[in-house]
Amino acid sequence: xxxxxxxxxxxxxxxxxxxxxxxxxxxxxxxxxxxxxxxxxxxxxxxxxxxxxxxxxxxxxxxxxxxxxxxxxxxxxxxxxxxxxxxxxxxxxxxxxxxxxxxxxxxxxxxxxxxxxxxxxxxxxxxxxxxxxxxxxxxxxxxxxxxxxxxxxxxxxxxxxxxx
Length: 164
Fold this sequence. Notes:
Blueprint: E1 3-9, H1 28-43, E2 50-53, H2 57-67, E3 74-76, H3 86-94, E4 101-106, H4 110-119, E5 130-136, E6 139-146, H5 148-155
Parallel strand pairs: 1-4, 2-3, 2-4
Antiparallel strand pairs: 1-5, 5-6
Helix pairs in contact: 1-2, 1-5
């Protein structure tokens, strides 16, 4: 099996001019996006070896809210704050076994560049969106790209249509 890097872009945050960038927190919508991401991944049955998050408030809060549904405790990883790249991603994966699934929570434009550098894919990474890349040695393959809207639908409980 190959390792998988799951990338979750932080949810919607308060405007840039409202406070210093590292302190910008999630809006109500951003909190819902983070919870939906966790619920969606849980519905997929994703078992994570670890979750790493940028220390910036909006990312750390996204990780905390998403991981409530995933039975993993997010760990702060400074490399995710600024300039996260494919080399950093490979170093995080190297800490884990050959079939590990690792979630990272962080920012654009770093995440779309990491997806491209690992897999060659070009993605439009929405706030609260997820991409997963299978990494096998020097090769990578984009295996999923989920928009926040899709994650919200995935996380919704199934309703029974059978007569009661």
